[in-house]
Design brief:
By secondary structure, the protein is an alpha+beta fold. It contains 1 helix and 8 strands, in the order αββββββββ. The chain is elongated and about 85 Å long.
């Protein structure tokens, strides 16, 4: 008889519990959630270091994330730096041995001219950043 009473009260207790779980699942992010657009798709740039010059390809891109793939074909170890228009270092690689490669990624958000430099003896390459590239919201196969 006691078992019948317990079974009779369970449906009454289950409904508020199910309702509480359902409301908790609705979230509460409210103003904290921002549906910001994705950044532009990163662009790959090739950098070639020789004994008397540094070259980059392409030399003009839109503002956004870039990845530089660097090959050091100079006869000595080099360290590459990306500098803004005022000469401030934005990103750099570690020392790259002769004949080796490296990679560095950065986000160049501000239009202008940037220097890709390795030292005082070798003139830097110039990278021209234009207006911002479109976001990657509709780009397929993006992470």
């Amino acid at each position: 008889m006691l078992a019948r009473r317990l079974l009779r009260f369970r449906p009454g207790l289950a409904a508020p519990a199910v309702l509480a779980f359902a409301l908790a699942g609705c979230g509460g992010a409210g103003a904290h959630f921002q549906n910001d657009p994705r950044p532009p798709t990163p662009i790959d740039l090739s950098v070639y270091i020789a004994n008397h010059r540094v070259s980059i390809s392409p030399t003009h891109v839109g503002a956004g994330p870039v990845t530089l793939y660097v090959t050091n074909q100079a006869s000595s170890r080099q360290t590459l730096q990306i500098r803004d228009g005022q000469g401030g270092a934005l990103a750099s690689t570690g020392a790259i041995d002769s004949g080796q490669t490296a990679q560095v990624s950065t986000d160049l958000k501000t239009p202008g001219t940037y220097e890709i430099a390795v030292g005082a003896q070798i003139p830097p390459a110039r990278l021209h950043i234009g207006r911002s590239r479109p976001n990657a919201d509709n780009a397929l196969l993006q992470p």
